Amino acid sequence: MCGRFTLTADVNAIQGAFPWLNVPGELQPRYNIAPSQPVAVVPNDGKSRLDYYVWGLIPSWAKDPSIGNRMINARAETLAEKPSFRTPFKRRRCLVLADGFYEWRKEANGGPKTPMYIRLESGEPFAFAGLWDQWNSPDGSMILSCTIITTEPNSLVERIHNRMPVILPEQAYSAWLEPIEQDPPELSQWLKPYPAAEMMAYPVSRQVNSPGNESPELVSPLH
User: Fold this and answer.
1) For residue 41, what is the domain's CATH number?
2) Is 223 a residue whose pLDDT tops 80?
3) What total of structural domains would you count in the chain?
4) Looking at the domain assignment, is residue 219 inside a domain?
5) pLDDT digits (tens, 9 = 90+) for 84-121
6) Which of 103, 107, 146, 152 is the catalytic position?
7) What digits encode the pLDDT tens for the residues 170-196?
8) Which residues contact 74 (CB under 8 A, 6 or more apart)?
9) Which of 2, 22, 55, 89 makes an SS bond possible with 49, Cβ 3.0 to 4.6 Å?
């Protein structure tokens, strides 16, 4: 499961990592992004632009938008089968921009779990594989929402958690963002663990446990 992540990079860093992307001039750094909050996405609508969708996918057919609270992650292994994700997997994919994420490590002594911050060794922004959908309310309003796809962990993350978010390599972006319907087996080739050798993880403050906390100190290594 991926339940918290960060996007602290400035506009220049994001533009450097995604040179083809239309990035707005101002971005607020986020150190503790939580479910139900707006997240930076690039939808496969052919416009190559950064937008903000609610984190927690609300299927177009849902009667109640609260279902999104249970849809923050989608397992790569069952995307083509689950009713909530089957159609978005074929037609409505997105990149979810990030530069790190948190997982909680169980301790041998049975004490409180330790929050771990996981990012690329390079420190550069990256993209989670995501799906999106549009929900229309009976009152005429609309909610655009998304979910982050997870897969089995690599050798770094498996010491912390039994799942990890799918981080897409750059060469997958164009296929993932094609605005046409695609064949699930073709897309599934990208849904695998990111190389552990290119990532790092370290313990951070338990302040991150509360989604109300938001500061650079949250990503500082514990001494």
Assistant:
1) 3.90.1680.10
2) no
3) 1
4) no
5) 999 999 999 999 999 999 999 998 888 899 999 999 99
6) 103
7) 999 999 999 999 888 889 999 999 999
8) 57, 82, 84, 85, 131, 147, 148, 149, 150
9) 22
User: What is the reported pTM?
Assistant: 0.96
Q: Residue 2 catalytic? A: yes
Catalytic residue among 2, 121, 146, 186: 2
Q: Is 214 considered catalytic here? A: no
Domain enclosing residue 43, as ranges:
4-209
